[in-house]
TrEMBL record, chain A:
It comes from the Eukaryota. Residues 131-141 have a biased composition (Basic and acidic residues). Residues 122-141 are annotated as: Disordered. GO terms for molecular function: SUMO activating enzyme activity. InterPro entries: ThiF/MoeB/HesA (IPR045886), ThiF_NAD_FAD-bd (IPR000594), Ubiquitin-activating_enz (IPR035985). It comes from Haplochromis burtoni (Burton's mouthbrooder). Transmembrane segments: none annotated. One of its GO terms (biological process) is protein sumoylation. This is SUMO1 activating enzyme subunit 1. GO terms for cellular component: cytoplasm; SUMO activating enzyme complex. Belongs to the ubiquitin-activating E1 family. Residues 17-77 form the THIF-type NAD/FAD binding fold domain.
TrEMBL record, chain B:
GO terms for cellular component: cytoplasm; nucleus. It comes from Haplochromis burtoni. Pathway: Protein modification; protein neddylation. Catalytic subunit of the dimeric E1 enzyme, which activates NEDD8. GO terms for biological process: protein neddylation. One of its GO terms (molecular function) is NEDD8 activating enzyme activity. InterPro entries: E2-binding, ThiF/MoeB/HesA, ThiF_NAD_FAD-bd, Ub_act_enz_dom_a_sf, Uba3_N, Ubiquitin-activating_enz, UBQ-activ_enz_E1_Cys_AS. The active site is at 217 (glycyl thioester intermediate). Belongs to the ubiquitin-activating E1 family. UBA3 subfamily. Pfam families: E2_bind, ThiF. The keyword Membrane does not apply. This is NEDD8-activating enzyme E1 catalytic subunit.
Length: 287, 442
C-alpha cells in the first residue's frame, strides 16, 4: 500500500540515496519512501530480500514467518509470550495446530471485543388485542433485520491453559468438558520437551513418550489418568490434510469475523476430532 | 606460497552451525568436481587455515565480507584506502550514519567480527600499492571489489610478479587465484583469473568500455546535452575565470559545484538545452557512477561462490568471465576469456616497439598511452646506455619531468638508442616494469 501524500525526502536522505536516485530518479525514490512491504518467510532468501528492501528505503517492512524459527518452534511458552505481548497492545491473537486427526484453534480478542449481529426484527404485539393467547406472542418478521451490538470478553492463552481443576466446581464440570483440551496440553508438552511434534519416523519412542506425558500432565492437574485413554496416541502423528482444511477454514473465518467485527466469535477454543468428525466450541479460562 | 598456520576457533561453534556448508563438502552430489571426495577436511581448512584477502570494503566489499564470513571463512584481511561517505549508506550496509568519516576497512572489520562469532577480519587502511610482495604472498585467494581499472591492473600485475618459473615451467604453488568483480548501476561482471594460466586483466583490456570523454569540438561549439554544458564550465570556463583564485575545482565543495552549475545553466539557455540540474552537475564533475545494493549483491555472491569453490576444490570454478545486466529484464552470459599471446602483463613475451630511428620519443610515449592493449597512464621510460641507467622521460616527479622533457622532441637515434635496445617502462598500471624491445623499422 502506497501512501497518498508525497513523502518528503530530507537532505540527509538525498545524500544517502544519491547513488540510486541517479539510477531510477527522485520520483521513484519518493514512491519507495512511501510504500509498506510485507515479507513472508525469513530463511536465507528472506534475510537477503529484507536487507535489499531496507537499503532501498521503503517506509515499512513487516516480517512474517509461518515456519518455526527456533528449535522449540511455536512452543507453549512462545505462544503465551506472544499472546501476552499482543494483549498489551490490543492486538488480536489466534493460535492453531493440527496433530494427526486432531486440531484446535484458540483466540484472544481482548477484554472487550465489540461486534454486531444481524438479527431478525422482533415485532412486539400490541397489548389491546383480544384475539387470544396466540396474538400475545411476539412475532418475528423474517424480512426485516436489525444490527444488534454485543461485547465479548476473552482471557489470555496463559489463563486458558492454566485452569485449575482441583476445585469442586471444576470437577463437577469435567463431564461436560471436551477431552480435547487435555490432549492439547499433552501435545504442547511433547513439543516443549522434544522441540518437535511426534514424528512417524520415531513412532515407538514417541508413542512411549506420549503415554508418559499423558500420565504426567493429568497427574499434575490432579486428574485421573483414564480421562484420556491411550487411543489418541496412534492418531496424533503428522498433519492430516482434511483436518487442516477444517481447522484452517474455521480459523480463517474467525479472523475475518474478528477483523470485521461482525458475528459472534467462537469463544475461546474450537476443537476438531477428525476420527469422529466432531467439532466443539468451548470456553476455558477464569470464570 | 608461505601461509600462516591455523588457529583454534575457541569453541564458538554451536551445534549445526556449519550444516549448510557441510552439505556441500561432506556428501557426494551431481555437480561436484570429478576429483571430489567428500570429507571433513575441507570445512576444517576453511575454518582454520584458508586465508583470503578482500580488496575494497565498499559496495562489493561489504557483500563479500558478509558472504565469506557466513560461509565459514575466518581468516580474512581487507584493504581499503577510503573513508565512509553518506552516499555509501544505500548499499554498504556494514556502515551506519555515525561511522561517516571513519576508515571503511576498520568499520567493516569491526562489524563482521562482532556479528559473526569466530570470524577474524584484519583491516588495512591503505592503498593496495602500499602493501608489498610479502603481504600478498600469504593469501590463498584474493578477491577484488575495486572501483578502478588502474587498481585492477596493478593487482593483476602484482600477482603475476609472484609467479615463479623453473626452466620455463610455471610452478603451480606460486599461483594465487584472483577473483575480480565490478559493478556500475545495473550492470556487473565477475571473473576468475589464475595468473599465468588463464586470461588476466590486461589480456582483455579492450573489453572495458572507454571512459566517457566528450570531444572538445562538441563541448566548445556544438553542445547538445546538458553534460556538454557542464563540461564546458568545468574544462574551459573554470581555468579561464578562476572564480576561487588558484584553487582547482573540488567536486566535494558545494560552492564550486554551485558555480559550475550556474555557468552550465547559462550555457544551456544559450543553446536551448534542458536538463541541467545541481545533481547532474555534481555527477559529471565528480564522475559519479550510480550504484545500488542489488547489483552488488549479485556480483559479490558470484565472486564469493568462486572463492568457496576454489578453496574447497569441490566444484568446477567459473570458466571464466560472467556478465550481468538487469537494466531491462535480466541478462547474464558467461564465456571463456582467452589469454593474449603477447599480453604485456602475463605473456612473458618481450613487448615489441616498432619505430623508425627518426621517430621522436614523444611518439613512443603516445603509443604507450593510446594503444588499446597497453593503455598506460603516465609511463616512465628508462634504458641502459653505456652501462649506465638513463631515464629517458618521467612525468611523476616534477624535477625529473623538467629535466627529461627536452628528450621528447629528440629522435630515438639522437637519444643514442639502437636496434634491439631494451626499454624498461614503469607505470601505475603495473607494479613491475614492463620490458620493451626496440625494433627499428626502415
Amino acid at each position: 500500500m502506497i501512501e497518498k501524500e508525497d513523502p518528503v525526502i530530507s537532505e540527509e536522505e538525498a545524500a544517502q540515496y544519491d547513488r540510486q536516485i541517479r539510477l531510477w530518479g527522485l520520483d521513484a525514490q519518493k514512491r519507495l519512501r512511501g510504500s509498506r512491504v510485507l515479507l513472508a518467510g525469513l530463511g536465507g532468501l528472506g534475510a537477503e530480500v529484507a536487507k535489499n528492501l531496507i537499503l532501498a528505503g521503503v517506509k515499512g517492512l513487516t516480517l512474517l514467518d509461518h515456519e518455526q524459527v527456533c528449535l522449540t518452534g511455536c512452543s507453549r511458552d512462545l505462544m503465551i509470550r506472544v499472546d501476552q505481548l499482543c494483549s498489551k497492545h490490543n492486538i488480536k491473537v489466534f493460535c492453531g495446530d493440527v496433530y494427526g486427526y486432531y486440531g484446535y484453534m484458540f483466540c484472544n480478542l481482548g477484554q472487550a471485543h465489540n461486534y454486531v449481529e444481524e438479527k431478525p426484527k422482533v415485532v412486539k404485539p400490541s397489548g389491546e388485542s383480544n384475539d387470544g393467547p396466540k396474538a400475545k406472542k411476539a412475532k418475528v418478521d423474517p424480512n426485516e433485520t436489525t444490527m444488534v451490538k454485543k461485547t465479548a470478553s476473552f482471557c489470555t492463552l496463559k489463563e486458558a491453559l492454566a485452569v485449575d481443576w482441583t476445585s469442586e466446581k471444576a470437577k463437577a464440570g469435567l463431564k461436560r468438558t471436551p477431552v480435547d483440551y487435555f490432549l492439547l496440553q499433552v501435545l504442547l508438552k511433547f513439543r516443549t520437551d522434544k522441540g518437535r511434534d511426534p514424528d512417524p519416523q520415531s513412532f515407538p519412542e514417541d508413542s512411549q513418550l506420549l503415554r508418559q506425558i499423558r500420565d504426567d500432565v493429568l497427574e499434575s492437574l490432579s486428574l485421573n489418568s483414564d480421562l484420556l485413554n491411550d487411543d489418541f496416541i496412534s492418531y496424533c502423528f503428522s498433519e492430516m490434510s482434511p483436518v487442516c482444511a477444517v481447522v484452517g477454514g474455521v480459523l480463517g473465518q474467525e479472523v475475518v469475523k474478528a477483523l470485521s467485527q461482525r458475528d459472534a466469535p467462537h469463544r475461546n477454543f474450537f476443537f476438531f476430532d477428525g476420527r469422529k468428525g466432531n467439532g466443539v466450541v468451548d470456553y476455558f479460562g477464569p470464570n | 606460497m608461505a601461509v600462516d598456520s591455523g588457529h583454534r576457533d575457541g569453541g564458538c561453534d554451536w551445534d549445526g552451525r556449519w550444516n549448510h556448508v557441510k552439505k556441500f563438502l561432506e556428501r557426494p552430489g551431481p555437480f561436484t568436481h570429478p576429483d571430489f571426495e567428500p570429507s571433513t577436511e575441507s570445512l576444517h581448512f576453511l575454518l582454520e587455515t584458508c586465508k583470503i584477502l578482500v580488496i575494497g570494503a565498499g559496495g562489493l566489499g561489504c557483500e563479500l565480507l558478509k558472504n565469506l564470513a557466513l560461509s565459514g571463512f575466518r581468516l580474512i584481511h581487507v584493504v581499503d584506502m577510503d573513508t565512509i561517505d553518506p552516499s555509501n549508506l544505500n548499499r554498504q550496509f556494514l556502515f551506519r550514519p555515525n561511522d561517516v568519516g571513519r576508515p571503511k576497512a576498520e568499520v567493516a572489520a569491526d562489524f563482521i567480527n562482532s556479528r559473526v562469532p569466530g570470524c577474524k577480519v584484519v583491516p588495512h587502511f591503505k592503498k593496495i600499492q602500499d602493501c608489498d610482495e610479502s603481504f600478498y604472498r600469504q593469501f590463498h585467494i584474493i578477491v577484488c571489489g575495486l572501483d578502478s581499472i588502474i587498481a585492477r591492473r596493478w593487482m593483476n600485475g602484482m600477482l603475476i610478479s609472484l609467479l615463479s618459473y623453473e626452466d620455463g615451467v610455471l610452478d603451480p604453488s606460486s599461483i594465487i587465484p584472483l577473483i575480480d568483480g565490478g559493478t556500475e548501476g545495473f550492470k556487473g561482471n565477475a571473473r576468475v583469473i589464475l595468473p599465468g594460466m588463464t586470461a588476466c586483466i590486461d589480456c582483455t583490456l579492450e573489453l572495458y568500455p572507454p571512459q566517457i570523454n566528450f570531444p572538445m569540438c562538441t563541448i566548445a561549439s556544438m553542445p547538445r546535452l546538458p553534460e556538454h554544458c557542464i563540461e564546458y564550465a568545468r574544462i574551459l570556463q573554470w581555468p579561464k575565470e578562476k572564480p576561487f583564485g588558484e584553487t582547482s575545482l573540488d567536486g566535494d565543495n558545494p560552492e564550486h559545484i554551485q558555480w559550475v552549475f550556474d555557468r552550465s545553466k547559462e550555457r544551456a539557455a544559450e543553446f536551448n538545452i534542458t536538463g541541467v540540474t545541481y545533481r547532474l552537475t555534481q555527477g559529471v564533475v565528480k564522475r559519479i557512477i550510480p550504484a545500488v545494493a542489488s547489483t552488488n549483491a549479485v556480483i559479490a555472491a558470484a565472486c564469493a561462490t568462486e572463492v568457496f569453490k576454489i578453496a574447497t576444490s569441490a566444484y568446477i570454478p567459473l570458466n571464466n568471465y560472467m556478465v550481468f545486466n538487469d537494466v531491462d529484464g535480466l541478462y547474464t552470459y558467461t564465456f571463456e576469456a582467452e589469454r593474449k599471446e603477447n599480453c604485456s602483463a602475463c605473456s612473458q613475451v618481450p613487448q615489441d616497439l616498432q619505430f623508425p630511428p627518426s621517430a621522436k620519443l614523444q611518439e613512443v610515449l603516445e603509443y604507450l598511452t593510446e594503444n588499446a592493449s597497453l593503455q598506460m597512464k603516465s609511463p616512465a621510460i628508462t634504458t641502459t646506455l653505456e652501462g649506465k641507467n638513463k631515464t629517458l622521460y618521467l612525468q611523476s616527479v616534477k624535477s625529473i619531468e623538467e629535466r627529461t622533457r627536452p628528450n621528447l622532441c629528440k629522435t630515438l637515434k639522437e637519444l643514442g638508442l639502437s636496434d634491439g635496445q631494451e626499454l624498461a617502462v614503469a607505470d601505475i598500471t603495473t607494479p613491475q616494469t614492463v620490458l620493451f624491445k626496440l625494433n627499428f623499422t626502415a
